[in-house]
Amino acid sequence: MTTHAMPAARFAPSADAALLLVAACWGASYGVAQSALAYYPVLAFLAVRFLLTAVLLAPACCGASRAQWAAALAVGLPLGGLLMAIFVCETYGVAHTPAGRAALLISLCVVFTPFAEWLLLGRRPARAVFGFAGVSLAGAALLTGGWPSEWAAGGLGWGLGEWLMLAAAGLRAMMVCVTSRLTRRHAQVPTLHLTAVQAAVVGLGCLAWAAAIQDLPPLPRAPAFWGATLFLVLGCSALAFAVQNWALRLHSPSRVSLLMGTEPVWGALFATLWLGETLGSAGWLGGALIVASTLWLTGRKGRA
To answer: How wide is the angle at C-alpha 23 spanned by C-alphas 104 and 266, nearest 5°?
Structure first.
C-alpha cells in the first residue's frame, strides 16, 4: 500500500458517514426550501443563501497564502459556475414539476455518474456499480410512488420543469467528476477555501441575474424565512459542499454519487415524521432498495 493510499483508507469510513449526513440534510431541504420560497423569489433567495454561506466561511480563509488562493480560484470558479447551473435548474424545476416526478428525475444523477466518470475521467467503474446504480434508481422510482401511473396513461408529457430536472441530474453527475479531477490536480487547495469560492460565485451570479431581470424585493422579516435560510446555509451549503469536496479526494465520483443517492430516503423520512405526509408500502420498499445499495457500496473493498 502506498503512503498516499494509507490516509485515504484511514479516513474513508468517516467520509462515508459524513456523506450520509449530508444526504440527510439535503433530503430535508426540499420542504425547508419550499417554505423559504413562499417569502422570496428563486434567484434572490439563492443569492441570499450562498452569499451568507460565503460570509460564514470567510473567517476560516483569512490565513491562506497567495498560492492557495490562486489554486482555490482556479478550481472554484468553474466549479462555482457548475454549482450555480445545478441550483438554478433544480430550483426552477421543482417549481414547475410535481414533487414525486422531480425526485425521480433528479435521482437519475446516480445512473448518469458512472457514465460521466467513464466519459470525463476515462475510468470505467466496476461492473457491479452499474447494477447497483440501477437498483438505487428503481428504489427511487418506488419511493416516489412507483412508476407513475399517469406516465403510462397519458404519455411522457414532459414540460419545462421535467427537462430542467433532467438537466440538473446530468449536471450533478458532471459536477462530481469535474470536482474529483480538479481537486486531485490542485491538492494544495484547502477544502473550506474552495467551498467559499464556490458559494461566492453562486451568490454573486444569482444576485446579478436577479437584478438584471427584476427589481429586487426587500428582504423578508418573517422568522420562518430566516430559520429555513439558516438551516440551508449551515447544513446544506457550508457543511454539505465542504464534505463533498473533501470526500471526492478519497472516493471515486460513482461512490460519492451513490452515497448521496440516499437523499430521497431521508426526504421521505422528513416528510413522514415532520410534515405528516404518508408513505405507502411501495415507497418503503424503494427506500429499502436504496439503503441496501448504499450499505453494499460502503462495505465494498477496493475501487467502486
So the answer is: 65
Q: Of residues 152 and 12, which shows the higher confidence score?
A: 12
Longest dimension (CA), the chain: 60
Tens digit of pLDDT for each residue in 238-272? 777 778 777 777 767 767 776 777 777 777 777 77
Q: Which of 114, 8, 72, 27 lies closest to 242 in space, CA to CA? A: 72
SS (H, E, C) 95-130: HCCCHHHHHHHHCCHHHHHHHHHHHHHCCCCCHHHH
Asked whether the beta carbons of 203 and 49 are under 8 A apart, the reply is: yes
Closest to 195 measured CA to CA, from 236, 240, 242, 233: 242
How far apart, in whole angstroms, are the C-alpha atoms of residue 70 and residue 76? 10
Q: What is the pLDDT of residue 209?
A: 95
